[in-house]
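Journal club prep, notes for RB
We'll compare a predicted complex against what the paper describes. Inputs for the 2-acetamido-2-deoxy-beta-D-glucopyranose case:
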Amino acid sequence: MTSFYGLLCLTAISIHLSCSFSQETNAFPAYSSFSCTVDTMEGVDSIEHRTVNVNGINMHIAEKGQGPVILFIHGFPELWYTWRHQILALASLGYRAVAPDLRGFGDTDAPSGSENYTSFQLVGDLIGLLDAVAADQDKVFVVGHDWGAIIAWHLCLFRPDRVKALINMSVAFSPRNPKRKPVESLRAGYGDDYYIVSFQEPGAAEAEIAQIGTERVIKEFFAYRTPGPLFLPKGKWFGHEPNTPISLPSWLSEEDVKFYAEKYEEKGFTGGLNYYRALDLTWELMAPWTRAKIKVPVKFIVGDLDLTYNAPGIKDYIHKGGFKRDVPLLEEVVVMEEVAHFLHEEKADEINKHIYDFFQKF
Ligand SMILES: *[C@@H]1O[C@H](CO)[C@@H](O)[C@H](O)[C@H]1NC(C)=O
Ligand SMILES: *[C@H]1O[C@H](CO)[C@@H](O)[C@H](O)[C@H]1NC(C)=O
């Protein structure tokens, strides 16, 4: 523990120094709290990048550090970049952080067709990745957020032999209901404007995004803090007039937004949207795993303002026994107060500590 906090102190000192150094050239002087992000950007430059061929696609990965591998799996609309704080912190604590751009995202290939985005291809990519970058490690640590949590769960279900322990953020488990397809259930529960339902029709969400503009869409998603379901009615996404300014949360800089926006501008959103469009196909193919339990040690972390935590029935499921029944090795559930969906960016230091505290036990 001592060395852990020591390292954090050192990190803090170097951040402070380079913050004051880079302030003069900060392109956004109005946002003084952004100065440390400029430094994070400098730290981010120390992260290494390469492309590996896995499961028939070229996958871009970001990595740093030596030691036991921690595989970081991002969500939507994110990229490897969402893990920048964790990559730097965990690499400095003796781990090898590996964060891919998932299939369909960023600098990784995006095969066409939503049928190419079921959990089987996605987990297949990650198994290929582990064989390529961690052939010497039978099992690795896994951290997932949002879609990445769902993929992480399926990785544990299909290949528990490859996972030492899992930290899952934001999205709580929903056991497979053999009687009803997920999109149908969501449509019945929330209607056609519920975001997952509205993402289904190929091209429709893409058209909305083109209308609003990529950068603005990124800002809207990251700034969303309503602790309730997300509805995206046609022509009225996010309910803002076109030119209303969107104020960014303190933990997200204009540079961060630009990073995401440039990659999404280049790649488009279809790859990410295909995850939602493949939900029912994944459900169909996963029939053999109905009522299967997760058999790896798990820590689950969620913010109390997260839309996922406020979905009907989820709190009861997480806190009243359902979750523990399906995930018998669930060791800890952490609910962070006043924190929303992108908790690992919003509360990076606390999340880094949670990750370290949990993984160092194994
Ligand atoms: C799925 O991906 C494969 C491999 O890239 C490709 O050959 C196939 O055409 C894709 N499916 C569809 C429906 O586009
Ligand atoms: C992690 O989140 C996924 C996503 O829904 C969920 O399926 C899983 O049960 C959660 N935790 C695990 C494996 O415990």
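Talking point for the session: The chain is about 45% helix and 15% strand.
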